[in-house]
TrEMBL record:
Protein name (database record): hydroperoxide dehydratase
Lipid biosynthesis is among the record's keywords: yes
Residues that, per the record, bind heme: C471
Pathways per UniProt: Lipid metabolism; oxylipin biosynthesis
Organism superkingdom: Eukaryota
Keywords attached to this entry: Fatty acid biosynthesis, Fatty acid metabolism, Heme, Iron, Lipid biosynthesis, Lipid metabolism, Lyase, Metal-binding, Oxylipin biosynthesis
Amino acid sequence: MATATSISISFPAARPSCHAHQRRQQTTTRAAATVTDQQQQGVVSPKRRLPLRKVPGDYGPPLLGALRDRAEFFYGPGGRDGFFTSRVRAHRSTVLRLNMPPGPFIARDPRVIALLDAASFPVLFDADLVDKTDLFTGTFMPSTDLTGGHRVLSFVDPSEPSHAPLKSLLFHLLAHRKQHVVPTFREVYGDLFGVMENELARAGKADFGQYNDAAAFGFLCKALLGRDPEEDAALGADGPKLVMKWVVFQLGPLLRLGLPRLLEDTLLHSFRLPPALVKKDYDRLAAFFRDAARPVIDEGERLGVARDEALHNIVFAMCFNSFGGMKILFPSIVKWLGRAGAKAHGRLATEVRNAVRAHGGEVTMRALAEMPLVKSAVYEALRIEPPVPMQYGRAKRDMVVESHDYGYEVRKGELLFGYQPMATKDPRVFNRAEEYVPDRFLGEDGERLLRHVVWSNGPETAAPTLRDKQCAGKDFVVLIARLLVAEIFLRYDSFDVQVGNSALGSSVTITSLKKATF
Ligand code: HEM
């Protein structure tokens, strides 16, 4: 699956993950000498026999290099994408060394080898080649005080004994009420569009994100746990707000909230926000799930997961993975579809309505299976704007990582980092890679491209297992994304949007909804 191969060519002594700059320089120099020697001898990568190349780029002086890269990543011209594309241009290489934020004083070591093309990226999915321990958020890990004192599954490597039982528990969470998913989605998102129509009539526009937050949280709790959070006296309608504050305490070091730069860089990117400040909010969320998710926690006990550990894993899966994912993905889908225009809307509406009519007017799994354009339009949104854009893995051994053109030597212990949008918008794999093409994945040729859609930390053609780190919610996410598209085109012939930025994903305002006429 991955294009990396472990190698037997002898390397200089493996680089320990030390932080002494001098030692680093010595090792890098020695590595450079080795590669030069190999190039002279015509050494090629073991798998595809590509010429070997030393990984270009440098980390700069300690501290200053990391601060320079952080400033460019957050505040440089061209933003985050510009940060990576300018390096690719400068080094004429899609595999290169750079520092990833946050750096000082949050992350111990910001140095990574960045993988910025579709060929090298998949090494991150290979559990034999990379270790994913504590790398879910990158070069730093949020305090476990934010998750009830537990290292939750997203931070656990498949080689750890707790990985399989925890992942089994989350598979169970997603599957045990599966007959409720479609009807609950239709009920909750039907109400959302009703409210948005009223708002549009009243104010001439309606913010999708605001309504989506409440709908996503309500849908998840009702569908997966059978409980309406707003009916819980202690939680009420506060769920989404509490979750977002708690997420900022975890992801703050990677976010731009739009505060004045000095304040933001100091407050958010240089020091950790104290978990004690969000403890009360988190305890309110945990109290709700302790009761609402009791049957799932019981199942955890059967699987050998202690009740408290099961609870905090369920809170994380429901609030961070699922709600956080829907908060980014749904506005993204509405944005790309909105921009796709009336002709694409007409094709989607025709497909959705024909399939639903053929199934007695109901949205069923079989009706959804007969909506290939909807399916393709969802994959295309996940390709062009992967909701979780950054993945990490630590090399388990010396290996050669292959891009399209070169093999790059990577040493055991080095941190590999993939910026997914550059893998899924790689022009060597996708035509018109920067364009949203709703029917891109139709037909045999389209389907062949699906292995390059990797939003779930694995190819779209693979399924998550207990032995890998592919997203446990992969099928669920694709299902609810299709349900969203189907709901929109059952109700409307077409719609218009205005788009802006927000800390997590896009901010989307609906400016018109044209009711279904056929
Ligand atoms: C749009 C929605 C979602 C996106 C974009 C997404 C994306 C991802 C990604 C990229 C990873 C791998 C992270 C890494 O290790 O580098 C991941 C892992 C994971 N996701 Fe999702 N996810 C989504 C929804 C969900 C949902 C609904 C669940 C529900 C249970 C979930 C549960 C998990 C879990 C448990 C892992 C860790 C898997 C493991 O340790 O083997 N995710 N997800």
